[in-house]
Design goal:
The chain has about 190 residues and is mainly alpha-helical. The chain contains 9 helices and no strands. It starts with a helix and ends with a helix.
Amino acid sequence: MGKQDMKKYNMDYVRISKSPCMNEIGKKKYGFDYDKALLEYKYLVGEKVSRKEWKKLKDCKKCNSYFEWEKSVMNENKEKTKIQLTEFEHYLDNKISMLKPQKNVYTILCSVLLGAIVTLLCDVDNINDYFNLENNYPFALFIVKIIIFPFLIIFAVWIMYKVMLPLWSTNTESTFLNEYRKIIKRMLDK
C-alpha cells in the first residue's frame, strides 16, 4: 500500500473534544449526519424541539411512523458493504458509550443541589442564632424568611432544571442511537 493509499484510508481529525470529533468521523467516514438524524428521530417520536431545531427541520425527512423511519435509515445505508456496516455499528456503540458518563454526572450534581436546598432550609434556626435576628432585627428576619429563602429555592430549582435538561435529552439520544444500531444490526444479519 503506497502513501497515497494510506492517506485516503487514514483521515485526519481535529481532536479538540470527543463529541465533535465523533460527529465529524460520522459525516466523513459513514455519511451519517448525527445532528440531522437525531432531529429527524425527535420529530418522529414527538420530542420537543427548540426554535433553532424547528427551522432546521424543513431540510429533514419527516417520517410519521417507525416503519417509514426504518426504511429511510436502510435506504441511507444500503450501499455500504458488510465491513462498512460493521464499522458503523462499532461507531454507534462508541457514541452510545459516550452518553453514559453524562447521566452519572447529572445525577450526582442534582443530588448535591437537592442536599444543599434541604440543608439550607434546616439551618434557618442556625441563621437566627448566628445573627440574633429574632430579638434585635425582626424586620431582617422577615426579609430573610420571606424574600431571600424563596429566591434561593427558586434559583436552586432553576439550576437543577438546567442541569437535568441535558439528562432528559441524553435519554432521547440514547434511545435514538440504540434504535439506529438495531436497524444496522438487522441489515448485517441479512
